[in-house]
Amino acid sequence: MLDNGADMVAVGTAFLTTYESPINPLWKKRLLSATGNDTRLTRLYSGKWARGVVTGYMQDFAQLDNDDLPNYPTLNAMTKSLRAHGATTQNSELMSLWSGVGVADCRDESMSELVARLAGMP
Question: In angstroms, how far is the first alpha carbon of the chain from the final one?
Fold first, then answer.
């Protein structure tokens, strides 16, 4: 990334799929199989605009995904049980699967391997 002339990069999503990451395994699996076309901005989970891997919940309620939704933290509290239910029933279609636009670059690797890869080290 820095080789392409950037002074800095934001790579938070890449760290989510490292071995050391404590995120839900379903979230990690979806990140590892996602492409950049599998994400979109949504307010449906939290009331704040955020990018995530598209889920069934996001598709089912797409027509409501606008600035008329309750703001954070109200909507976040309203969807808390939905997200928890998704996690406990192993249904990632109900979970918030936050990610960045570079999700296609995520790998199943250690944090040290990721840092070395980002630094351009062999």
Answer: 15
| pTM (predicted TM-score) | 0.89
At 98, is the secondary structure helix, strand, or coil? strand
Q: What is the pLDDT of residues 77-96, one digit of tens each?
A: 999 999 999 999 999 999 99
Q: 3-state class of 109 per DSSP? A: strand
- The superfamily in CATH containing domain 2-119 is Aldolase class I (3.20.20.70)
Cβ-based burial of 83 (10 A; exposed 0-12, middle 13-18, buried ≥19): middle
Regions in the chain scoring below 70 on pLDDT: 1-4, 122
